[in-house]
Amino acid sequence: MTETDIYRHLRDYRDVLGAQAEQHGARWPEISDGRLIMMMSPRARHQFVGHRLRKQLEPQLPDGVILMVETDVEDASLGILRTPDLVVVDETADLAHREALDPRSVHLIIEIVSRWNASNDYREKVADYPRMGVPHYVIVDPRDQGSAVRHWGISTQSGQPAYENEEHYRYGDTITVGEWKIDTTDLPRYDAGSER
């Protein structure tokens, strides 16, 4: 069985599991490295951070570029399907007919860290997104004092595409991604008792 066959089987299985996952408060699974990745649906506090980010970014986007929320981004040739929290993408004519976004039309992905699953955003997705050709990846981390990391500039490291640059921020800083600015000053933090 080839990697392509394995991915097709995982993709079919994902469709079956996804409907069941929704009934139990979980997200549709993602696919990476030949495995399904299950996650809980984000809590309101997680989505509130996303809402604040969306309100900031949307007015800055030029015509023909839109921001989408929790939308599949898929590169079947790599066997990767991710569902980022926020995606800045070209608005193309075929977008209304696609099941998943083409990563080559993505300008920026933003992931908001969940309290109990930080390694997925900080390790696995930092590896997957440059492989998919996503030029800018920002991680917003509402835990503790609040922080963010911006990754950009894809090069080859150890034979694999990887981000060349990484810049760390604290809440209160402004993150610049090309022409766009993300002010972290008023982004909510998770309180000590929150679950995710």
UniProtKB/TrEMBL annotation:
- Coiled-coil annotation reads none
Quote the CDD domains the UniProt record gives.
DUF820-like
Recorded hits in InterPro entries, A to Z, give:
Nuclease_put_TT1808 (IPR012296), Restrct_endonuc-II-like (IPR011335), Uma2 (IPR008538)
Q: Which GO terms describe its molecular function?
A: endonuclease activity
Keywords on record: Endonuclease, Hydrolase, Nuclease
Q: Kindly give the Pfam families that the UniProt entry links to this protein.
A: Uma2 (PF05685)
Which domain of life does the UniProt lineage start with? Bacteria
Putative restriction endonuclease domain: from which residue to which, for each copy? 30-155
- Output this protein's name: Uma2 family endonuclease
Q: What is the lineage of its organism?
A: Bacteria, Bacillati, Actinomycetota, Actinomycetes, Kitasatosporales
